[in-house]
Amino acid sequence: MTRVRRRATGFLRDFQEFALKGNVVDLAIAVIIGTAFGKIISSFVEDVIMPLINPLVAVSGKDWRTITVGPGIALGKFFGSIVDFLIIALILFLAIRALQRFKRQEEVTEETPPPEPQLLAQERLTDALDRLTETIEARIERG
Q1: CA–CA dist 57, 2 (Å, integer)
Q2: Which residues contact 102 (CB under 8 A, 6 or more apart)?
Q3: Least enclosed by CB within 10 Å: which of 56, 66, 97, 132?
Q4: Quick one: 65 exposed, middle or buried, by C-beta within 10 A (0-12, 13-18, 19+)?
Q5: What's the predicted TM-score (pTM) here?
Q6: Positive or negative, the Cα torsion across 32, 33, 39, 42?
């Protein structure tokens, strides 16, 4: 009985560590935000963009969303989904591009140029000479 209980608590502890890791929580938040963002983009396409494009693509006075081919093949909805995808892809591309630029600028400002090898060697020699001088002076004072 205690063996089963240990396994269960070990499993629960492992699951808790996994579920509360930063990556899993970040992924869950990203999915939620992505879902909300998708709804905003769908509304933007249906309510703003397509009414502007609708007069251009109107087929015999029909709305673009009702374009169908054969029995039940809804091309209008499919085209709307394609436009949604293209807008989301464009926005993500622009956001990722901006983040990469910001990251590059951050890396450039944080990087300090490595010291020149000659300067580094001179500093080491100077430190060694200082220690040697202190050692010699200490022996002279003793003797």
Answers
A1: 70
A2: none
A3: 56
A4: middle
A5: 0.48
A6: negative
